[in-house]
């Protein structure tokens, strides 16, 4: 028999405990019956559908399992998501913030954007934006001030991209979540050295609330939670 209980630290995220005592993360789906990716697993309890959240597919799920101190997503949050790709993690963010929240999904590549369009068509609190996150002026008329910025972009200048968007869109006192990809920044240095260097740059502009290395779910990745 399944047991579904709220996560102890993250609102609108749940634990699903199976008969063998294994536990997995899940969210309550805003689009029951629709799979964001082909082998997505879900289960029903009464009239609700819960989507199992795979930490090997989502760095945010990995960070939660690694015990990140503060996930700044709440019901009604306005989120600017940079590097939304095909919309997998963005769809879980959509579940967490609920119908009163909104996710602005910026993606530069047209191929994953096709999948993202389908996801957004099923979710009234998500919209796709084809744009380069290096140039926020190209989507500033489409995006309101954000409560949260979430970035997952594999580029050498990912920290600069992040700070540019923080200055353009994030409320004072707002939070941001940054997935740092060491090998995209410099393949010649040790990941922990890269993380330290990037964190020093970030600390000049923002407060770092928490930082987690995402191994074993994502190799050479760290997740940072920051406050403006």
Describe, in plain words, how this protein is organized in 3D.
The chain is an alpha/beta fold and 228 residues long. It has two domains: 3-53, Phosphorylase Kinase, domain 1 (2-Layer Sandwich); 60-227, Rossmann fold. It has helices at 59-65, 88-97, 110-122, 158-169, 182-185, 191-203, and strands spanning 3-6, 14-17, 23-28, 42-45, 48-52, 78-82, 102-107, 126-130, 146-151, 170-181, 207-213, 221-227. The strands form two sheets. It has a seven-stranded mixed β-sheet. The N and C termini lie far apart (44 Å). The model has no long low-confidence stretch (mean pLDDT 96).
Q: What is the alpha-carbon Rg in Å?
A: 17 Å
Kindly provide the name of the CATH class of the largest domain: Alpha Beta
| Uncertain runs | none
Order of helices and strands: EEEEEHEHEHEEHEHHEE
Spatially, the strands of the biggest sheet line up as: 8-7-6-9-10-12-11
Count of DSSP strands = 12
Individual helix count? 6
Number of domains: 2
In short:
The chain has about 230 residues and is of the alpha/beta class. It has six helices and twelve strands.
Give a topology summary.
Blueprint (H helix, E strand, L loop, with lengths): L2 E4 L7 E4 L5 E6 L13 E4 L2 E5 L6 H7 L12 E5 L5 H10 L4 E6 L2 H13 L3 E5 L15 E6 L6 H12 E12 H4 L5 H13 L3 E7 L7 E7 L1
Parallel strand pairs: 6-7, 6-9, 7-8, 9-10
Antiparallel strand pairs: 1-2, 2-3, 3-5, 4-5, 10-12, 11-12
Features:
2 domains; 12 strands; Rossmann fold; single chain; Phosphorylase Kinase, domain 1; 5-stranded antiparallel β-sheet; globular; 7-stranded mixed β-sheet; alpha/beta
């Amino acid at each position: 028999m399944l047991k579904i209980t709220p996560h102890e630290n993250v609102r609108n995220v749940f634990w699903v405990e199976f008969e063998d005592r294994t536990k997995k993360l899940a969210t309550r789906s805003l689009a029951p019956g629709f799979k964001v990716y082909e082998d997505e697993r879900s289960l029903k309890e009464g009239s609700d559908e819960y989507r199992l959240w795979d930490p090997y597919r989502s760095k945010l799920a990995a960070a939660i399992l690694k015990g990140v101190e503060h996930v700044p997503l709440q019901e009604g949050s306005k989120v600017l998501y940079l590097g939304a790709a095909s919309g997998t993690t963005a769809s879980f963010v959509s579940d967490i913030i609920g119908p009163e929240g909104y996710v602005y999904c910026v993606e530069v590549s047209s191929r994953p954007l096709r999948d993202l369009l389908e996801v957004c068509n099923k979710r009234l609190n998500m919209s796709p934006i084809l744009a380069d996150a290096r140039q926020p002026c190209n989507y500033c008329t489409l995006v309101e001030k954000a409560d949260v910025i979430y970035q997952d972009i594999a580029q050498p200048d990912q920290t600069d991209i992040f700070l540019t968007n923080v200055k353009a869109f994030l409320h004072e006192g707002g939070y941001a979540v940054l997935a740092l990809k060491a090998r995209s920044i410099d393949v010649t240095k040790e990941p922990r050295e890269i993380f330290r260097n990037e964190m020093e740059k970030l600390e000049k502009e923002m407060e770092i609330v928490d930082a987690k290395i995402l191994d074993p779910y994502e190799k050479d990745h760290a997740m940072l939670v920051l406050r403006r």
